[in-house]
Amino acid sequence: MNKFRYLLMVFVFLFSSYCVSIYAMVEFSAIKLPRNFHVASSEIYIPWFTVYQKEIHALNNLGQVAGYVGETIDGRKAAIWDPISGSIGLYPGGTGNIATAINDQGWVTIYSGGHVFLWNVKTNEQINGPKGRPCAISNNGIVLIQVQQGFRYILWDFKNNEITSFNEGSPVVELTDDGIPCLENHSSSGKCYTSSRLNYNDEILTWFYEGKYHFLCSLPVNACLNYKRNEVFVSGLLPYAIFTKNGMKKISVTPQLPFGCGNIYGFVSSGKALLGGQEFNRDFNLYLLIPINK
Description:
The protein is mainly beta and about 290 residues long. The chain has a domain at about 40-195. It is built from 1 helix and 28 strands. The chain has one helix spanning about 5-15; strands at about 20-30, 35-40, 40-45, 50-55, 65-70, 75-80, 90, 95-100, 105-110, 115-120, 125-130, 135, 140-150, 150-155, 160-165, 170-175, 180-185, 190-195, 195-200, 205-210, 210-215, 220-225, 230-235, 240-245, 245-255, 265, 275-280, 285-290. It has an 8-stranded mixed sheet, with no helix packed on it. It has a 4-stranded antiparallel sheet with strand order 2-5-6-7, with no helix packed on it. A 4-stranded antiparallel sheet has the order 8-9-10-11, with no helix packed on it. Strand 27 (about 275-280) and strand 28 (about 285-290) form a beta hairpin.
């Protein structure tokens, strides 16, 4: 990116900040993850709705991150990173797999060979699951699995070994702590209706809630909507921000993140966030952001 374009983006950000009320400052401390650790994310793009929504559940409220090590598809090995020890725990199975989600009880969803496996990082227990790609796991042990391209899912209650199939024709954008899928722009008996969603079109980010779209910013950014907090974490090449219905919270990070860490890979109910990106030295790094309570 040339210098002129960067300066132009800074100007646009400062100008757009006046369009949204700034009412608070949020401070985070940053922890750098090991360079050989990667996260797997799935993204939904619906061109007829111009909706861009990330389904990312690799971060739990404790700050543990599910992902993998290894650079080749066959050589990948599912792993978790723990912020307390700062170490990587490796999945005891073979290679050619990735960890896609983790809950607060330490259950990790593993995707390998088109099948789902579970691994508990506390007890090292392993459970074989059905076919499909695991997207999320709730704190009460419900696994959301995408079984085909499009919006076909099953819910696997691994504790009771029960599977529930549903095809609602709408993307699942969240799984509650009780294992209830939240469907975007859809209402159904027994399902969670998400009347809140993001819309990103032509570098204009808007947030739909209370029946209408609300302007957030006009920059090439990444955004993650936390449905439990009802907040949007926005990251990009410019200063980070959290948007609420009351306005915008500016973000201060210590130590300051390198330029280029603009991808958001998770924003959970505890307020923690997972950011990453390719820095000037072309290394891709991940950072866990932990809110500082004052």
